[in-house]
Amino acid sequence: MPFPVSTYRLQFRNGMDFDRAIGLVPYLKRLGITHLYASPVFAATEGSTHGYDVTDANLIDPVLGGREGLERLAEVLKAEGLGLILDIVPNHMAASLENPWWRSVIEWGEASRYGHYFDIDWGQRLTLPFLGKPFEQAVADGEISLTLDREHGSLAFAYFDRLYPLTPSTHAAALDGCSHPLAARLAELGRQASSAEDAEFHRAVSALCEEGQSDGLLQELNTKAEDRAFLVRLHDLQPWRLMFWTEAAKGLSYRRFFEIAGLVGLRVEADDVFEDAHRTILEMVRAGQVDGLRIDHVDGLADPGRYLQQLRSAVGEDIPIYVEKILAPGEDLPEDWPVQGSTGYEFIAAQVPVLLDRTGFQAMREAYSQIAGPQKAVSEKMREAKLRMIRINFAGEVKALVDQASELSGQPEDGVRKALEELLVAFPRYRTYGAEQGMPVSDQALLDEVLALAKTRLDGDTPAVAEKIVGLVKGEGLAQEHPAAVAVFRRRFQQLTGPLMAKSLEDTLFFRHVEFLALNEVGGELEPEEGGLEHFHAEMKRRAKRQPLGLSASSTHDTKRGEDARARLFALAEDTPRFARLIDAWREKHADVIEIDGKPAPEPEVEWMIFQALIGHWPVDLDAGNLEGLSDFADRVAAFVEKSLREAKLRTDWNGINADYEQAATDYVRRLLIDNHDFVEAFVREIQPLIWAGLVNGLTQTVIKLSAPGIPDIYQGSERLDLSFVDPDNRRPPPFDTLAEFDPTAPLSFTDERALAEGWLKQAVVARGLALRNRHPDLFLDGQYLPLTVSGPRRSQAVAFAREKDGLAVVTVACRLPIAMLKEGEGQSSAAFWGDTQVELPGPLAGMSFRDALTGREIRSADGLLLRDVMDGQTVALLVSEVK
């Protein structure tokens, strides 16, 4: 199977299983897709909606159809000439009793055969932060009891429906004083048990329970459990300790995924763990059933480079590997990673200069400050967000680093904490990649820059302390005296900077700094890059060189909003003055803001966010008369607002919910949409130009994705229109039945307003663009990228570039800044609007004839392409010609 020409991301679960996916294969074939890109399909916790909470790394989830169903899907895909890419999760698993590896670790502690599979600090008891209150209080309230787990064959602490197994060596203590005949036999089994014989032990316990009548024993256990002090003593004997879930941030004995205590870090750096965690996926790769892999959160691993080398060695050179990696501005994937590229968040950011009116953006910024008050610099807001995460959400991880650095360096903890905080705040990207074999020179230089910036905020002895910490991360100095301890410190530091950046920027600041939501996107920056179209072209040339096979995303299951909502919001920046006035009027007329804790709820900046969200995500066909549609949309907006407020962590958050405040904000939304017919009617009327402009922007970003360097990745349903909110809204199943009605041979008309509004036009552009790529895969794989100059009176309204290889060229032309086009070209013909504006063609392209792959029209050129000919009735074009 060749490398992908295009991918289609399909979210399994939520109604999507292997049989239903099989039914979509003919449609994907018609659309032009070459590879189905599947979300995680291994067994996950009961009711999982995403699959990243894996409970068995070698069991294809029976809920989806099991391994047989996946193999059947692979067979159908192969018969149609399509490949299968699977999303795998090597960084973490579910810290759940449903996970047999984790259950074994709970029961047997470090002695479990899986004790080293997870990233656990066995210098302390295993922490289980899954209680709704402190352990002693739960015991006092009678919520914890002692019981017999017949299914798994063990004594257990019962906490509601969860049964935490007692380590067998403590069975005797649990049963001491019980007169039931089974008690002595169970105690003896526990004394004889070892982790190597756990299956035999469990069978024996289960058999005893089946042989005898255990009800009487359970009654005795219940009586013993009435002695609360006894339960506390028995709990103290376990290799684990149950704790209040809110204590997780203060410190856990295991590495978690970001802030999620229910996901425990996996140690795939250990060879036996790698082999066990990848056994089934490698079997399917070697059997030719899986044609590519997507690696979730590669930066969470202890040594991503070594892991990828090991994976590459296991799958061979012909299997594409993609890594989920957030790249900071100017950052590239490490050159020694044997991968095809990233999953493409940086491609979203690279398109910003095409869609953004910088003057309009500044107007948005000014309008926001007039409503929300004077604003701190983005950098200062980022500092505040990072410090909040360092001191609260990741306090446990930071404390562990402080303790270790203090011990290694001999420096007081206070000085180490101050120095470490400033280093973490100054860190500008996800991580460095120091490992046993050393640290790349570029990463050492980055750490030097971080150190220099941190020092500007340190005084006294702390700059010297910061130098020592950086030396530890680099593996210098003390690394010779304490190599193992320094290696652990470096690993912990590098595995913290990524989650810290993600949670500070994407899941805090993006929900606090809401002046212009179009920029608040994964992989993006709140301060757009300078340079305009020149910067865009530079990024595409760089992409052609560094990631020609990387995925090019525009929507994913993790983006903050659907691509068409983002496209519409970019158009909003062009119309800021009008909408700033409208929002002021709407706020004044319909607000009914109340006070919570002495402050308005919602506050002005949240109102500004809400109106932006309504504008960006409003369904194209929703009007004031559709009460059912308005109610559904109000629910979705309210869910978005609630999540946004909690992620902002200002007046409410996930760990301390301010229900009254949240209710006030969501009630505000419902009053606007449900109780204000006049508002909805006026709102729909006012946003019509933005709806049209957003659809035009959507076509522009689509043709760029289809023809720019990289592999276009289509997120489920976004080939039509994607106006979704942040997850879980963006993980709802799209209307596949309607999508599959698509006929790629039907005539394409850019003047069909219904086709544009309903997304049929975008879907047709996707299909014809993919057909072009499928006809000329080498051109798009490694053809050179040529920025093209647009000259003439409307030069700011178009972007153009070419791909050229071995006598073949494709020229992409797309309109930009559509609100300006609408205002300036109203009532004019295409010829009158464009005038002599043209795309200049360099040497080998000049004078050639082109055919538009979208419409079939022939376009002739002299020294350039006149846009009055190319864009006659349309807003995007893909022109293909042989180069002589």
* Percent of residues in beta strands: 5-15%
Count up the helices. 36
- Share of helical residues: 40-55%
Tell me the number of strands. Answer: 29
Approximate shape: globular
**Mean pLDDT figure:** 94
Largest sheet: 8 strands, parallel
- How far is it from the N-terminal to the C-terminal residue, by CA? 32 Å
Structural class designation: alpha/beta
Can you tell me the residue ranges where pLDDT is under 50 for at least 5 consecutive residues? none
Query: Strand order of the main beta sheet, please?
Result: 16-15-14-5-2-1-20-17
Query: What's the alpha carbon Rg, rounded to whole Å?
Result: 30 Å
Polypeptide structure, described:
The strands form eight sheets. This protein has an eight-stranded parallel β-sheet. Strand 8 and strand 9 (154-159) form a beta hairpin. The two termini are 32 Å apart. The chain contains 36 helices and 29 strands. By secondary structure, it is an alpha/beta fold. Helix 17 packs across helix 18 (413-426), helix 18 (413-426) packs across helix 19 and helix 29 (688-707) runs parallel beside helix 32. The longest helix has 30 residues, at 483-512.
